[in-house]
Amino acid sequence: MTTLPAELTSFVGRRQELLEVRALLATSRLVTLTGPGGVGKTRLALRTAVRVQRTFPDGVWLVELAAVHDPGLLAKTIGMTLGLRDADEDPAARLTEYLGDRSLLLVLDNCEHLAEACAVLIGRLLPAAPGIRVLATSRHVLGVEGEHVYSVQPLVVGEVRDLADAHERDVVRLFADRAVATSAGFTVDEQNWSQVVEVCRRLDGIPLAVELAAAWLRVLSVDALLDRLDKVLAPGSRSSPARHTLAATIDWSHALCTPAERTLWARLSVFAGGFDLAAAEEVCSGRDVAPLDVLELLANLVDKSIVQSEQGTARFHLLETIRQYGLRRLREAGEEDAVRARHRDHYLRLAEGWSRDWRRSTAQTKTYAQARQEHANLRAALQFSLGSPDQVAIGLRLVVALHFQWLFCGHPAEGRLWLEQALELNPEPSRDRAAALGITAYALSLMGYASSTYSHAQEADAWARKHQDEDMLGHTKFLLGSYYFLTGEIEKSAPLFEESIRRLEGLGEPSSFVLMLYSAVAQAELWQGHLAEGMALARRALGRCDDTGEQFARRSLLFAAALADWMQGNHDEAVKGLTQAIRLAQAFNDVLGAINSLELLCWTTAASGRHERAAELLGVANKVWSLVGGHRLLGSLKMIDAHDACERDVLNALGSSRYQAAFDRGTAASVEFHQAMVYAVGREADADGAVAPARPGRGSLSEREYEVAELVAQGLTNKEIALRLVISRRTAESHVVHILDKLGFNSRSQIATWLTSRRYDAR
């Protein structure tokens, strides 16, 4: 016996979710599927019920509660579904008696507006009827003892490489399936796959939204659909209940919230890419919402599936469609500018704290992880500040505070764009402007633009000299020295680097930047042929890294020491140092630092006679440079000469055919940056004897958990980890929780710090 309706459309995907919900039902008597409107809770519940109906002798019964608004009618509605005749007696008692000796599954659909009544009734039924199980769908948890909550996620879009990859995505297959129903003959092909993927991404992978959009292909092309998504999300056919349009589902959720919850929802819409409780309290409190109330209100919004909780991270986010709805409400309330200003001030305070920590070499790995996690919020804060005429000075201050993010954590090009915009909007001389000029010069030097480096550095230096700003002069002398280093005038660069050290050490400059300067001086000495002096400087500065816990400058100093080893023919030592340098660069997403170390690894490998491996590494380097852009080898004439000499030697040793085959292997193995680095300095010794990097001990972590920890250290989200390892997001979340538990940590940044420290303890 069953009341399950026939499916009017095909069920697409959700294979892993079906397995997981079935497993939960086998061990739990109450499973609640939660998630935002339109995410597919009902379809998943119904398909699960179909799969398990043979295990329930008395059937599977669907009770639709959307139209039931009076809690007093809940038990009666369930009874009527089961065939009980209406009576004046207590319907809950009658239902309890009826179910007492039966074995069946109740599917209670859309419980959120009757959550309290559902919780009371289910709490009464389960003890009295041991043979029944309940599968509920609700936008928030019911709060019944023994309840197992399963959060239904949108369909994953992810990074799609080509047509074949697109066809593997459940969300694309759903779009295509629904499109065919209204546009016979529609297919996802070479001409439209990328647009289809973008439609699905714009809709957050929410199945209902995807279905509504696909239906419009009866009158629109996919390109036109992208331009008209707002109209596509208007109410659908009259045969569908109003709640089955995306706008209606969100409106319904909004109506179920208290006034304070609605206010918090609207204010949370200014966040981009997620937020933590502290941010929500600081940004969203104010009129109608006290700081101490934010936690409870936020928890309520999580329970109602308005806010998504990122398991194991103490972070939250809103799906984009729900965030946009909240933003519209915020604008209607006239609060947008005020809340965005509080949002910007919060992240300015964080950024200035991170900047101080970075310069002092304290918790750099944690600082990087935090800044990376908040990258989208930082962008939003910059956009607000630089887009508001009365806020541009604060925008300049923020872009300067984020110097470490632009220069050392893989974002020089983006940093340059923000910096140049801030400079254009703040033309009057000031210290912040001079600092921005210096940071821009540094970013330009990292991309190999020597002449632009010089002009920006000169302007900053002129301001510093005029105002006798010793700290600024210490930095501008380094930048001028960098210009001469890039152009090959090494003899001019070294004195400027040394002057920079003297000025900054005289001020008691925190160690990080000064240690970077020692690396610059060491490299200048080495390229002038002063091998002993250069090596001694690098080794001495590495010792200071050990004393201070400095992480980032260590990468540059390891490069300098390896450069000396290469020049002196100490190839094994050079490879060991470069392996560590590349691993460190990866930990900070320092792409330019990694690729420069990889270049030196190519030269060292060739010099040691392992020409085939050197050709492979040259292929890796070539591919990564193409990904990075800018001038290769930073435009440094000395490094370009060394690269060309290495390439000639390897080609002569292997011959054209063998060289090209090995080069192509390296290129093919380097689809993206981290994959390229793993190939270059993988855990195992390569076939022709390259030195394998030291593998830190895993402690109590399993092999898979350690692999997940490494991806966490790279800053990947649970969704990105799931895609990388080809596992479900829920499995990835579970691994992260287990790692945190085993290591006694409470944040992902602690995992990154722990892993980095173990790597370098093992060197």
Can you describe this structure?
By secondary structure, this protein is mostly helical. Among the domains are: 15-151, Rossmann fold, CATH 3.40.50; 163-247; 257-334, Arc Repressor Mutant, subunit A; 579-680, no CATH class; 703-761, Orthogonal Bundle (Arc Repressor Mutant, subunit A), CATH 1.10.10. The strands form 2 sheets. Strands 2-3-4-1-5 form a 5-stranded parallel beta sheet, sandwiched between helices. Strands 6-8-7 form a 3-stranded antiparallel beta sheet. The longest helix has 24 residues, at 336-359. It starts with 14 loop residues before the first helix and ends with a helix. The model is unreliable at 235-245 and 683-698 (pLDDT under 50).
Q: Which properties best describe this structure?
A:
763 residues; Arc Repressor Mutant, subunit A; 39 helices; 5-stranded parallel beta sheet; mainly alpha; elongated; Rossmann fold; 3-stranded antiparallel beta sheet
CATH architecture tag of the domain at 15-151: 3-Layer(aba) Sandwich
What is the CATH class name of the domain at 15-151? Answer: Alpha Beta
Q: What percent of the residues sit in helical stretches (DSSP H or I)?
A: 55-70%
Question: What do we call the CATH homologous superfamily of the domain at 15-151?
Answer: P-loop containing nucleotide triphosphate hydrolases
Beta strand count: 8
Largest sheet: 5 strands, parallel
State the secondary-structure class: mainly alpha
In the CATH hierarchy, the third-tier topology of the domain at 15-151 is known as Rossmann fold
Distance between the termini: 66 Å
**Outline, from the CA principal axes?**
elongated
Strand content: under 5%
